[in-house]
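Postdoc handover notes: sequence design on the structure in folder B. Input tokens:
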């Protein structure tokens, strides 16, 4: 099968460069490709594997050992100098989203264990990917436990397996590439940090370039062999350059001046830990080798920073990845000068000479000659982000002319296209003007985040793995066994088969196993739930201090949902109707964006909000029956549109759904209306000021002291 050629892909120079850096030096730590759907993320990764140099392996070694430097602890070893060897292409191994842990790391070979009575190890995908490429599409949808195992192996270069009586260590060095669509949910910052480089990709808005992409794709689909043949020269040249750069890499020198630049940049951007410094140093050295140089330059450091730092600046799960270009240039200028005596070096980009000069010759097949911008740095010359807005913290009574965010004339400086809303902006409300008015409501800022109480769904579910409610999951502690073959429980299987050995005529060392003897593990862990927020945005909630508290509470609960791997949805009700502001999604960042711009004012259609929640949950039960729901109603209980009886009848439709009512009523005189709704729902009622975990701890301590 002819893979779409790497050099035939139009644009995306940053992504091409990041992949080539890792092809030259896999120790950089892989590439995370973030971007919208339909941007050829998977195509370019699969094309890269065809450029990698062929590998020489020991014949019949399941772990692809290098005959010149075999792994001394290889399970198929030891290997001698006289062992047979063969040459094969570098592998592209794909990790499916639904893969289990034993498929990734390997496990006991049950067939041989049960039939031959021997303890044998069956290698997994980490062994198959050794000295090749391991590709994970939609890595953000992979369970965190598997991502941890994957990134541990990528960082250490070895895989350790300790399970089912098997203790194995084998080499596992590979080029790791993960792709993801941020709209479907983010990776945790701790996992993001484990990827060496990251690149944001988006479809071009240039009609000519889009037309060229379509033209080449149609030509490829019409005749893949002829299209690949037309780009064979460019592919051969790229593969040769990768091989030469790998050979040159040990000769590359990282001067102390360049190292000081790297550490100064990482310190200036307040990057946690030292992984970023190491990754930048390795990437800069790989860039120098790629451009046929033996000394790292400031230009190498600059490009390495642009690829290695943006995803490491996320301190908060809602923060947008990005890099302040002006700050980067300032730091590089302050720490520069070490290469004054060196000849000027070319800007280390993907380079026009890489592909533009390697287009197919006439008569060799289709002529998909790329139309390229003469400057490879077009994507990097965009204006940097606007500087931070006025950091002054406004008081609740700031009015027009007060100099705070309520001063007339202040306009919000929104995020760049495709970026996530910065949580600091959501919390401070900077850039928002005017007071709330019912005729033209303005969004209020939010109070600071805090750790909220943990709400769970009672019982034992069977939903997607997460960290909220108890459930039977593929991961967790083993609590028993049942008939099945998904994850064989060896002890239970042997116990089921043992009483029948004489009747089955057993004569050798192995047991006689029938399909009915097989038992699978029953594991108990935690699942992620669907947390549906139903937020009262009516005029009774529009008092500035109250809405600040409500937004702070919901953002805190969203943060909790992010950490517990929940899906979230957001319904708001005001005026005469309810709106599904955010359909159920794994992207809690989208929930934060919707909440940041939430307007308030008008009457309180409480019944409409509850009816909309019932409709959404009904549809979600059909779409994902295993995912249990948790309803969070945030209101003061007043129903000023429609009658209170309508709200109670609507609440009856939600009985049986685990619910929490956050009572936002304040003041010395409380009507307790939210408590009545909670009683009708069969829900737990929590006052807004008691939502924080610390507040609950204080209440418990006070009651114990009083007793």
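Designed sequence:
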């Amino acid at each position: 099968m002819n893979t779409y050629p790497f050099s035939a892909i139009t644009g995306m120079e940053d992504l091409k460069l990041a992949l080539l850096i890792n092809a030259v030096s896999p120790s950089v730590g892989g590439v995370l490709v973030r971007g919208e759907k339909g941007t050829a993320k998977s195509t370019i990764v699969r094309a890269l594997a065809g450029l990698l140099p062929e590998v020489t392996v020991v014949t019949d070694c399941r772990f692809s050992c290098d005959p010149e430097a075999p792994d001394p602890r290889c399970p198929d070893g030891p290997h001698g100098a006289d062992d047979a060897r063969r040459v094969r292409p570098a592998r592209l191994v794909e990790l499916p989203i639904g893969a289990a842990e034993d498929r990734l790391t390997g496990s006991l070979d049950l067939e041989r264990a049960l039939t031959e009575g021997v303890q044998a190890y069956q290698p997994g995908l980490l062994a198959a990917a050794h000295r090749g490429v391991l590709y994970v599409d939609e890595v953000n949808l992979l369970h965190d436990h598997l991502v941890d195992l994957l990134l541990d192996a990528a960082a250490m270069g070895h895989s350790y397996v300790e399970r089912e009586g098997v203790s194995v260590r084998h080499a596992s060095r590979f080029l790791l590439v993960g792709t993801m669509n941020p709209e479907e949910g983010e990776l945790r910052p701790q996992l993001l940090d484990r990827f060496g480089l990251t690149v944001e990709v988006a479809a071009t808005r240039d009609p000519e370039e889009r037309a060229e992409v379509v033209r080449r794709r149609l030509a490829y689909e019409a005749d893949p062999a002829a299209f690949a043949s037309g780009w064979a020269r460019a592919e051969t040249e790229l593969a040769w350059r990768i091989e030469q750069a790998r050979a040159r890499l040990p000769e590359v020198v990282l001067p102390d001046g360049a190292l000081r630049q790297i550490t100064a940049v990482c310190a200036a951007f307040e990057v946690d830990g030292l992984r970023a410094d190491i990754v930048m140093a390795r990437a800069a050295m790989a860039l120098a080798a790629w451009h046929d140089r033996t000394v790292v330059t400031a230009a190498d450091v600059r490009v390495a920073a642009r690829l290695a730092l943006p995803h490491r600046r996320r301190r908060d799960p809602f923060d947008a990845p990005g890099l302040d270009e002006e700050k980067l240039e300032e730091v590089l200028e302050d720490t520069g000068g070490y290469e004054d005596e060196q000849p000027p070096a070319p800007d280390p980009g993907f380079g026009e000479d890489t592909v533009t000069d390697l287009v197919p010759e006439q008569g060799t097949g289709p002529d998909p000659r790329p139309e390229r911008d003469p400057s490879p740095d077009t994507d990097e010359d965009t204006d940097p982000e606007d500087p931070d807005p006025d950091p002054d913290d406004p008081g609740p009574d700031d009015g027009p002319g007060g100099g705070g965010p309520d001063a007339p004339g202040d306009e919000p400086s929104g995020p760049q296209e495709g970026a996530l809303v910065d949580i600091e902006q959501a919390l401070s409300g900077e850039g928002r003007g005017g007071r709330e008015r019912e005729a033209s409501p303005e969004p209020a800022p939010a109070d600071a985040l805090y750790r909220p109480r943990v709400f769970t769904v009672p019982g034992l579910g069977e939903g997607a793995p997460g960290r909220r409610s108890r459930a039977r999951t593929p991961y967790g502690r083993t609590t028993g066994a049942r008939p099945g073959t998904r994850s064989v429980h060896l002890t239970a299987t042997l116990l089921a088969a043992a009483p029948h050995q004489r009747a089955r005529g057993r004569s050798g060392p192995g047991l006689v196993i029938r399909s009915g003897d097989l038992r699978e593990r029953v594991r108990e862990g935690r699942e992620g739930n669907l947390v549906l927020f139903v937020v009262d945005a009516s005029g009774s909630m529009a008092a500035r201090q109250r809405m600040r508290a409500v937004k702070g509470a919901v953002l805190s609960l969203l943060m909790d949902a992010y950490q517990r791997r929940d899906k979230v949805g957001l319904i708001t009700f005001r005026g005469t109707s309810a709106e599904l502001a955010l359909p159920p999604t794994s992207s809690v960042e989208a929930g934060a964006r919707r909440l940041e711009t939430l307007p308030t004012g008008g009457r309180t259609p409480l019944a409409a909000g509850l009816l909309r929640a019932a409709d959404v949950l009904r549809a979600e039960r059909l779409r994902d029956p295993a995912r249990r729901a948790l309803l969070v109603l945030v209101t003061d209980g007043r129903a000023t549109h429609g009658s209170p009886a309508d709200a109670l009848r609507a609440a009856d439709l939600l009985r049986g759904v685990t619910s929490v009512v956050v009572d936002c009523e304040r003041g010395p005189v409380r009507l307790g209306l939210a408590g009545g709704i909670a009683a009708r729902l069969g829900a737990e009622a929590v006052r807004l000021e008691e939502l924080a975990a610390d507040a609950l701890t204080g209440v418990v301590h006070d009651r114990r002291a009083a007793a």
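Context for whoever picks this up: The first strand starts at residue 31 and ends at 35. Don't rerun without checking with the PI first.
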